[in-house]
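Cross-check.
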Amino acid sequence: MKTGRIFDRTCSFTGLSAAVGAIALLGFAGAGADNLPPPATPADKVWLLGEPPAPADNLTTPARVELGKALFFDPRLSGNGTVSCASCHNPSLGWSDGLKTGIGINGTVLGRATPTVVNTAYNTQFMWDGRKKSLEDQALGPMKTPEEMKTDFSAALQLLNDRAGYRAMFHAAYPGEAISEETVAKAIAAFERTVVSKDSRFDRWVAGDRTAITAAEHRGYQVFSDPAKGNCAACHKPPNFTDNGFHNIGIAHAPGQDDEGRFKIRGVAVLKGAFKTPTLRDVELTAPYFHTGTATTLMDTVEHYARGGDDRRNLSPEVRKLNLSAAEKADLVAFMKTLTSPVKSASVPALPQ
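Predicted model, tokenized:
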């Protein structure tokens, strides 16, 4: 425990006064120590993330990241020049949009919540229903969707080719390759791979800093990990707090608005109403929650799981009623908040004119 000077003057203790003072100080130190969690064990190290992977044909370089960032923020690539990738994936809103469900071009209300871009570099499945198999493929998805960006790629590629600034950036990033849908997708994906959260307080505790989290937050971690308690780690697995799988967690839809999720992509009965497990890293920043955006707070999500979901048709076997006390629920929420990494500045780049 760090100690500091409380008063800018000296005091002398004699006899009984000195003894009482010493006991008081020891009591204070003990109280602080009681609030510390136990040290992380070797088994806890599974939660530490390595460097983001990248495919051999699109290794991350500064030039590719710079180009991808410009494309990510450029609304001129949309069908009417008003929305960009960053319109829905806003850095100041946890790389999401803070809305119940997304808003596309011309104010179109979308059917699902906007997932965060954070740590998509580590994913193996993309989109809520997993219909995209790579970050490069995912990058073009919203651009080609009429309700989202409605990009006219012939016009967009002409716009990029007409600007000397963009021509120079593409040449630096992908020398010898044309300005094409493929290089646009590769550049955006290269930028998105830099949106990483792996320096949270929890990460620092796992790495050996016992003071990084509190005893209550550690109790929440135990609830999270215990199959007999929260059972959260059954789906939110290490190291990125996702199994990259699909589960029906009992979300109730409005009448006539059922969403079959993964089942539409892969027609296996168990996948009806199943959606991708999102990462919990930076989850504090990405409310509201679920693919419907119907959980306003982290406590709302905990309460949903505690009651075993709402629509129990085809419910995933991992979802069941939980016997959690109010204190355990509060500790669980406190733990999830330890998964937030320091927010990094993401200024809007100057776009080639």
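Strands lie at 246-247, 275-276. Residues 1-32 have pLDDT under 50 and may be disordered. Passed to J.P. for a second look.
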